[in-house]
Amino acid sequence: MLPYQTLQEAELELELELGRELSYAEKLWLDYSANKSDFYLYCHTILVLFVIFSLVPLPVVFMEIKKAHTILKYKIQPKVKISAQGIFKCWKDVMITICLVVGPLQLVSVFRYKMVGIRTGLPLPSGWEMVMQLLVYFLVEDYTNYWLHRWLHCKWGYDKIHSVHHEYEAPIGFAAPYAHWAEILILGIPTFLGPAMVPGHMITFWSWIILRQMEAIETHSGYDFPWTPTKYIPFYGGSEYHDYHHYVGGQSQSNFASVFTYCDYIYGTDKGYRYQKHYLEKLKEAGSSNISPSRFIKSLKMHLHLLGNLDAAEFGLKNCGDCLKSQLYQHASEPFTL
């Protein structure tokens, strides 16, 4: 809340203070925020989360319910079908979590915003300032989330907490925040760590929340669209990358990264995924060239046995049989089983 009697007085004072006229965006922000407390503005984060998680997944969800052939060919696990009732239940559970966990957490965390220096006044940040701060937020969140996610895949963390999120072996957009309440609290730390390290304007913070949650919805969508702009982002994981992690489930020791892939590559936790991609390509070749898939699977098992110290399931052996069976069966000279 700004200490002025009228908006005109506030605009004149701020222009004198800044030594320039207010931009159109700054005038809009001033008009909206001048008579609102910081607490009220900070609480908008709850509304932002509710709108993002309710609206962003809808286009893909509607097309999946309608079984639109234009997008079903991009489905990563085409055999898995989720009913409209199942999708609605997922959304309902997420909204309950937002109301009972995320909402109260945001309310009690308002003091943290002020404490770390997230501001609501003018001037607004420049475009470059926002871009650089958002880049820091993504990198900090990605690195810290990677290690916390790995911890959640230890036996205790998975059995007690993380298994809830993995109830969806073939994830959908609404399932991005579907998790145990403790996981929401734990993974909320990386989300806030970047803004705490490099505090900016509340607009930047909301932009960060929106972009990060939209990214999470995309990676949990269950679809790998070739036209998505995120495919041009260096080291970006995407839906296919994270879908593999969900498919392997509790056994998974691969693809822990939330956004980028560099941590998995550096620490060797993307080996299963890379081998899986390599052998799916080989399996496609086997199917298209009428080579017996059973002979190919034999050689694949032999190779996995030679690898020894790594779990065969982690190398997508199950994926080879399940994920593409419906697509490759018609091209194979004989059916194959694992």
What distinguishing features does this structure have?
18 helices, 338 residues, disordered C terminus, elongated, mainly alpha, 62% helix
Helical amount among residues, as a percent range? Answer: 55-70%
Taking the sheet with the most strands, its summary is: none
Q: Treating each run of at least 4 consecutive H or I residues as one helix, how many helices? A: 18
- Label the overall shape: elongated
Low-pLDDT segments, ≥5 res: 306-338
Total number of beta strands: 0
Radius of gyration: 24 Å
Overall average pLDDT: 83
Strand content: under 5%
Structural class: mainly alpha
Q: Which quaternary structure do these chains form?
A: single chain
- What is the end-to-end distance? 65 Å
Query: Helix and strand string, N-terminal first?
Result: HHHHHHHHHHHHHHHHHH
Describe this structure as you would to a colleague.
The chain has 338 residues and is mainly α. Helices cover 62% and strands 0% of the residues. It is built from 18 helices and no strands. Helix 4 (44-55) runs antiparallel to helix 7.
Summarize the structure.
By secondary structure, the protein is an all-alpha fold.
How are the elements arranged and paired?
Layout: H1 7-18, H2 24-33, H3 38-42, H4 44-55, H5 58-65, H6 69-72, H7 84-108, H8 110-116, H9 127-152, H10 155-160, H11 181-197, H12 202-219, H13 239-248, H14 262-266, H15 271-288, H16 293-307, H17 317-322, H18 325-328
Helix pairs in contact: 4-7, 4-12, 9-11, 9-12
